[in-house]
From TrEMBL:
Signal peptide: none annotated. SMART domains: AAA (SM00382), PepX_C (SM00939). InterPro entries: AAA+_ATPase, AB_hydrolase_fold, ABC_transporter-like_ATP-bd, ABC_transporter-like_CS, Galactose-bd-like_sf, P-loop_NTPase, Xaa-Pro-like_dom, Xaa-Pro_dipept_C. Keywords: ATP-binding, Hydrolase, Membrane, Nucleotide-binding, Transmembrane, Transmembrane helix, Transport. Belongs to the ABC transporter superfamily. One of its GO terms (molecular function) is dipeptidyl-peptidase activity. This is ABC transporter ATP-binding protein. The chain crosses the membrane at residues 591-610. It comes from the Bacteria. Residues 215-262 are annotated as: Disordered.
C-alpha cells in the first residue's frame, strides 16, 4: 500500500482537518438521503432471535433483526441479507422499498457483524446458513407472513455479495425458499480468491480486515465493508421483545479466535483465520483450505437449487467476475432450476444496483411469489458502456438478447515469441487496478488510471485495426506456448482495447492469472487460457492486444527470478451475444462509494499538494550546490536514533568520503539521500531541491546503495539496457557505451549475470549507477569484492569523473582507499558528525609528526627521552612520533642538540590515526 504523507505544520493540519470534516459531512448526507428512500415511514419491529451456537449445542447465539411491515398483511416475505463487513442497517433503504411494494421484510445482522453475537464462518452450512433457516422458522410463526404450510413461510431471499452467496446457500439447503435473487456474488470462493491457484491478495486482505477489525464484545458495529455503497452506523437500536425466541437484551459476544501464531482474528473463527494466514503467508492453498472454501461456496449446493433464480452480476467487478454468475447459471440449469441473468455496468468496482434495477428485481420477486402479471425480465439483458459524453459520464445502453448463449468470433493476433522475466522479489510489479478504486478508471474509455506494465516483464500480441465494432460479451480465450527453466510459471493475461492514437485501455481492470507447470527440459507447453469476462464494445479502427505478464501487485507472485519464452498459438476467440438495444442502462447506486472515494482522493490530493509545494520548492542560492544536508535526524520506534542532527555540504568536483564504524549511520544517511526512507527531522537538498520520495531531482543522482538487483538470467549489457528503459528517459542519453567501458568487463558483459563473480557484479553495479552520467554519483562500499588492481582502476575512474565538474559521494570502510581517492571526508560516529573537511587537514589532525633525518636511530632515542612522547617508529630515514603536545620546534631543537641533522619536519598525514582518534579504538 502507498504511504500517504501527513502534514506537519499546524496550518496544513487545520486545513486538512477542515476538508475532512466537510467531506465526511457530505458523505453522511449522501448516505442519509440514499438510505431513507421515498414515501411514508414503514412500521418496523426489532428483535433478538436465538439460534444454536453450533450444531447440537445447547448454547445460543443471538441475532439482531428488524422486521418491516407492508400496509396489508398477510403478505409474502423477503429475507434480505447484507454484504460482508456491514450489518442490517446497510440494507434499510431497500427493506423500506420492498415493504412499500407489499412484502414483509426481515433484515438481520449475520453472526459476527453489528450487534449479533458469534463468530464469522463465511456462510458455513452449520452456522450462517443454519441461522438463516432459523429465521425462516421465525417467519413461519408470524401472522403477517403468508404460509405455504406448517412451518413453511412463502418467502423469497435476496442479498448482495456475501448476502447473495447466503441466498444461494440457503436455497440449496432449505426447500422452503420459493425464489431467489442473488446480486454480484460468487459461485466458488476458491476460484474467486485463488483463481487458477494464484492468490488474489489485495481483495482477500480487504475482506479479512473488514471482519478482523470488528472485534469482540457486544454492541459493536461491523467494520466498513469493501462492498459497493455499503455503510455502517454507531447508533444503538432500541430492542423490543418480539415473538418466538425474541428477547430484549443482547448476549455478550464470543471471544475472538486466534490462529496458531497468536495473531488476532477479530470475529473470525480460528479455522477461517488459519486458512487466511496460510494464504497470506505462503500464497498457496492447502487441500484443507480448498475443502473449507468449497464447503462455504454456493457450488457445493447449486445441484439442489430448483426454485426460480435471478442472477444479477456486475460487469465492473474484479472480486466476483461474470464467470461466477455463469457458473451458477450453468449448474442450477443442469439441476433443473429456472435461471435468468442480468448483467449491469456495476459491481464491486462500479456500484450496487440503483433504484431502477432494484425495482426490476423487486418486480421479478413479486411475479415469482404472487404470480401476478408477467415476468418483467425477458431474455438476457446486459449493459453496454459506450464512449464518454460531453459531460464526462460514460453512456450506457441495455442490449437485450434472446438468451445468454454466445457466438464466438476469432481475431487474428501478431507477435513473435518473446522473452519475459520475473524480477527478484516480484518487484516492481505490474498494476492492473486497485480494489475499491477501480471505478475511477475502469468505467471510462480512458487509459486506465492505474495500468502499468513494467518493461521486460510482458509479452504483447496485437491485432490489425478492426474493420467494424466488436462487442465482446463474456470471457475471451487464447492458447499460449510457454517454456522456461523454472518448474512452473505464474503469468497474468490481459486483453487491452487500443485506440488509433496508441492509448491502451484495460476493460474493467480485468486480469486473469494462470499457473503453468513447465517441463524440466525447457520444452514448451501449450496452455488454453480463459480470460476474465468483460462486456466491451471495441470500435472500428481500434486494435485488440493480448498482454502476458509475470507480475501483478493485486496477486501473490513468485519471488524467485525467472525467465520465460511466450508465444501465441492462433488468435483470440471472443464471445458475442447478439441482441437489440432496449433503453438506457441501469444507473448504479454508487453515491456513497463515489463520495467516499472522492473524499479520500480530495484529502490525499490536498495533503500531497501542500507537501509538494513545500518539498519541491527550490532554494535558488543552492541551485549549483550538489548536496546540502542540514539537521538530518532519523529515529526509529524503541528509542533507536540512527542519525542525529547531521549537517554537511558537498561542492562540485569533490570526491567526498563518508567514513564511520559499523552502526555509525552511513547507509541510513544514503538511503535518506535517495528518498528510500523519510527523515524524522531536518532536510536534504540536491541542487537546491528538497529530497522526498519520488522527487524529480532524484533523476540527477546515480546511485549504488540498495544492491544491484540484477536479473541473473540476462546478460550484463541487457540488464543495463532494461534498467535504463525503466526510467523512461531517451536511449541516446544513457551513455551505455561509456558505462560499459567503465565496468571493464570486456566480452563478459554479454554473458549471463549469474556467471559473474562478486567483483564483476560490483563493477556492473557501478556502471549502472553511472548510466546517464549523473551530476551526483552516490556509491555505498563500491570496492567490495574488487582485487587491488580493480580498486586502483576504480580510484582513477572516480577521480576522473569528479574532474569533469560532477560530484562523487563514497561510503567506505577502507581508510587507505578513502585517503587516496577522496578530496574531502565526513566522519560519523554513533549517528553524529565528528569531523568534516579536506582529507589532508583531517589526516594532519592526528597529533603525530614526521622527521626526515640522517641518523634515524639516534633521532628515535632523542625523541624517546622527552616526557609524554610515545609511539616512536622508524621507517627508513623517516622517524614518526606522537609528540603529545610538545611543540614541533622544540623537538627539532632537541634533535639538532643530539647531533642529528634534520632535513624535513612536519605533521604525519595518516587518515587512519585521525579516524581512530576521532571515534576511539573500540569504534
Amino acid at each position: 500500500m502507498p504511504r500517504f504523507p501527513f502534514p506537519r505544520t499546524r496550518r496544513t493540519r487545520l486545513l486538512t482537518l477542515a476538508a475532512v470534516v466537510v467531506i465526511l459531512a457530505a458523505v453522511g448526507l449522501v448516505w442519509v438521503r440514499s438510505a431513507g428512500g421515498d414515501g411514508p415511514p414503514v412500521r418496523t419491529q426489532d428483535a433478538m432471535i436465538d439460534v444454536p451456537a453450533a450444531p447440537g449445542s445447547a448454547e445460543q447465539v443471538r441475532l439482531d433483526t428488524t422486521m418491516y411491515f407492508p400496509e396489508r398483511t398477510p403478505a409474502p416475505a423477503i429475507l434480505l441479507a447484507h454484504g460482508f463487513g456491514a450489518d442490517k442497517t446497510s440494507v434499510t433503504g431497500e427493506a423500506q422499498e420492498l415493504a412499500r411494494e407489499g412484502f414483509v421484510v426481515l433484515t438481520y445482522s449475520a453472526r459476527g457483524f453489528g450487534h449479533s453475537a458469534g463468530q464469522i464462518s463465511l456462510n458455513d452450512p452449520d452456522f450462517e446458513v443454519a441461522d438463516s433457516s432459523r429465521l425462516l422458522d421465525y417467519l413461519a410463526t408470524r401472522p403477517e407472513v403468508q404460509q405455504d404450510g406448517p412451518n413453511d413461510p412463502h418467502v423469497g431471499v435476496t442479498g448482495v455479495s456475501y448476502g447473495g452467496a447466503l441466498t444461494l446457500m440457503l436455497a440449496g439447503q432449505d426447500r422452503r425458499v420459493d425464489a431467489i435473487a442473488p446480486v454480484i456474488t460468487y459461485n466458488d470462493l476458491a476460484q474467486s480468491l485463488i483463481p487458477n491457484g494464484v492468490f488474489k491478495r489485495s481483495w482477500a486482505a480487504l475482506l479479512f480486515s473488514s471482519g478482523a477489525t470488528g472485534g469482540a464484545g457486544g454492541g459493536g458495529t461491523g467494520a466498513e465493508a469493501p462492498e459497493p455503497g455499503q455503510a455502517t452506523t454507531d447508533s444503538a437500536t432500541a430492542l423490543s421483545s418480539g415473538a418466538g425466541s425474541a428477547a430484549a437484551a443482547s448476549a455478550p459476544q464470543s471471544p475472538p479466535a486466534a490462529p496458531g501464531n497468536g495473531a488476532s482474528c477479530g470475529r473470525f473463527t480460528a479455522r477461517i483465520c488459519q486458512a487466511y494466514t496460510e494464504l497470506a503467508t505462503t500464497g498457496v492453498a492447502s487441500p484443507a483450505t480448498l475443502d473449507l472454501l468449497h464447503r462455504v461456496s454456493p457450488d457445493s449446493v447449486t445441484a439442489n437449487i430448483k426454485v426460480p433464480t435471478l442472477l444479477v452480476q456486475g460487469e465492473n467487478d474484479t472480486l466476483f467476475g461474470l464467470d461466477q454468475a455463469e457458473a451458477n447459471a450453468r449448474q442450477i440449469t443442469a439441476a433443473g432450476g429456472q435461471v435468468q441473468q442480468i448483467w449491469y455496468a456495476g459491481g464491486h468496482d462500479g456500484g450496487k444496483p440503483g433504484p431502477q434495477l432494484r425495482a426490476k428485481i423487486h418486480d421479478w420477486l413479486r411475479f415469482q411469489l404472487t404470480g401476478e402479471g408477467t415476468n418483467p425480465v425477458s431474455g438476457f439483458p446486459y449493459d453496454v458502456q459506450g464512449t464518454l459524453r460531453a459531460s464526462g459520464a460514460p453512456s450506457v445502453r441495455i442490449v437485450e438478447a434472446a438468451s445468454d448463449v454466445s457466438q464466438d468470433q476469432t481475431v487474428a493476433l501478431a507477435g513473435p515469441e518473446q522473452t519475459i522475466v520475473n524480477p527478484p522479489g516480484g518487484v516492481p510489479a505490474a498494476v492492473s487496478g486497485i480494489p475499491g478504486l477501480n471505478g475511477l478508471s475502469g468505467s471510462s474509455r480512458a487509459t486506465g488510471l492505474f495500468g502499468v506494465d513494467p518493461p521486460g516483464q510482458s509479452a504483447r500480441f496485437t491485432s490489425a485495426p478492426l474493420a467494424s465494432q466488436l462487442l465482446v460479451a463474456g470471457a475471451p480465450t487464447i492458447r499460449l506456448r510457454v517454456s522456461g527453466t523454472a518448474g512452473e510459471a505464474v503469468l497474468f493475461v490481459k486483453l487491452y482495447d487500443v485506440s488509433p492514437d496508441g492509448t491502451a485501455s484495460l476493460p474493467a481492470n480485468q486480469v486473469m492469472p494462470i499457473r503453468v507447470a513447465l517441463p524440466a527440459d525447457g520444452s514448451p507447453v501449450e496452455v488454453p487460457v480463459t480470460l476474465a469476462g468483460i462486456v466491451r464494445p471495441i470500435e472500428s479502427g481500434h486494435l485488440v492486444r493480448i498482454v502476458v505478464g509475470t507480475t501483478d501487485q493485486s496477486f501473490t507472485t513468485p519471488v524467485a527470478p525467472a525467465s520465460y519464452r511466450v508465444s501465441l498459438d492462433g488468435g483470440v476467440t471472443v464471445p458475442t451475444v447478439p441482441g437489440h438495444a432496449v433503453g438506457a442502462g441501469w444507473p448504479t447506486n454508487n453515491l456513497l462509494a463515489i463520495a467516499g472515494v472522492v473524499a479520500a482522493a480530495l484529502v490525499i490530493a490536498l495533503i500531497a499538494a501542500l507537501r509538494r509545494r513545500r518539498a519541491h520548492h527550490a532554494d535558488p542560492e543552492l541551485a549549483e550546490v550538489p548536496l546540502v544536508i542540514n539537521g538530518l535526524t532519523k529515529a526509529y520506534p524503541g528509542g533507536l536514533t540512527a542519525v542525529k542532527q547531521l549537517s554537511f555540504r558537498v561542492e562540485r568536483g569533490q570526491v567526498l568520503g563518508l567514513l564511520g564504524p559499523n552502526g555509525a549511520g552511513k547507509t541510513t544517511t544514503l538511503r535518506m539521500l535517495m528518498g528510500l526512507i523519510t527523515p524524522s527531522a531536518g532536510e536534504i537538498r540536491v541542487f537546491g531541491h528538497r529530497i522526498t520520495a519520488g522527487a524529480p531531482v532524484l533523476s540527477r543522482i546515480g546511485s549504488f546503495v540498495e544492491g544491484s538487483g540484477f536479473l541473473p538470467h540476462l546478460s550484463g549489457a541487457t540488464n543495463l539496457q532494461l534498467y535504463w528503459a525503466a526510467t523512461g528517459r531517451p536511449v541516446e542519453s544513457a551513455h551505455v557505451t561509456e558505462a560499459l567501458e567503465i565496468a571493464g568487463l570486456g566480452d563478459a558483459v554479454h554473458r549471463k549475470v549469474r556467471t559473474y563473480s562478486q567483483g564483476m557484479r560490483q563493477r556492473l553495479a557501478i556502471a549502472q549507477a553511472m548510466l546517464g552520467l549523473p551530476e551526483l554519483l552516490v556509491l555505498d562500499e563500491p570496492t567490495n569484492g574488487l582485487d587491488p588492481p580493480q580498486i586502483h582502476q576504480m580510484r582513477e575512474v572516480l577521480q576522473r569523473y569528479a574532474a569533469t565538474g560532477r560530484t562523487v559521494l563514497v561510503s567506505s570502510h577502507l581508510l587507505a582507499e578513502v585517503e587516496q581517492t577522496c578530496t574531502h571526508v565526513v566522519v560519523m560516529h554513533r549517528g553524529a558528525l565528528v569531523a568534516a573537511g579536506e582529507v589532508g587537514d583531517i589526516a594532519a589532525a592526528g597529533g603525530e609528526a614526521t622527521f626526515r633525518v640522517d641518523r634515524p636511530a639516534a633521532a628515535a632515542d632523542a625523541l624517546r627521552g622527552f616526557d609524554g612522547v610515545s609511539h616512536v617508529d622508524v621507517e627508513g630515514n623517516l622517524v614518526h612520533a606522537d609528540l603529545d603536545g610538545l611543540p614541533r620546534a622544540e623537538a627539532v631543537a632537541a634533535l639538532v642538540h643530539a647531533g642529528v641533522a634534520v632535513e624535513q619536519a612536519g605533521p604525519r598525514r595518516r587518515l587512519e590515526d585521525a579516524f581512530l582518534r576521532l571515534v576511539g579504538e573500540d569504534g
